[in-house]
Amino acid sequence: MLDATAGDDLIEVSALGGGYTGTVVVNAQAPKVNFDNADSFTVNGGAGFNVLNLLGTEGADTAFSGTSAVTVNSGRVTLGTGISLLDVTALGGDDAVFLDFLTTARRRSLTADWATTS
């Protein structure tokens, strides 16, 4: 579980996959946390306006949602309390992003070179 600060936060999670390997950074500041073989995890935002940015890769990414979680390339992140905006940055490749079922975040955003969305 990751708990951000009491203020406004930008929480970036990158390179998710079946091995749950990647990094987490809050507000572009140290410490940058690397994880490997972690279970799926929950991100809590705190009291401010909190953005959870899930970063894809330069390859073909797949992201889909349940009501309170997003799976990116087989790695799952649960949106806990205080997440105001979910941003999926798919980067390069022929990406498929489906966020129809997500009800936890108040708003959603998508940035991609090319994406199939619904």
Provide keyphrases for this structure.
globular, seven-stranded mixed sheet, six-stranded mixed sheet, mainly beta, 118 residues, single chain, 0% helix
The sequence of SSEs as H and E is: EEEEEEEEEEEEE
Average pLDDT works out at 82
**Which percent range fits the helix content?**
under 10%
Structural class: mainly beta
- Total count of domains: 1
Can you tell me the overall shape? globular
| Terminal CA distance | 29 Å
State Rg.
13 Å
Number of helices: 0
DSSP E strands, number: 13
Q: Short summary of the structure?
A:
0% of the residues lie in helices and 53% in strands. It is mainly β.
Report on this structure.
The chain is mostly beta strands and 118 residues long. It has one domain. Helix content is 0%, strand content 53%. The chain has no helices and 13 strands. The strands form two sheets. The protein has a seven-stranded mixed β-sheet with strand order 1-5-9-8-7-11-13, with no helix packed on it. Strands 4-3-2-6-10-12 form a six-stranded mixed β-sheet, with no helix packed on it. The chain is globular, with a radius of gyration of 13 Å. The model has no long low-confidence stretch (mean pLDDT 82).
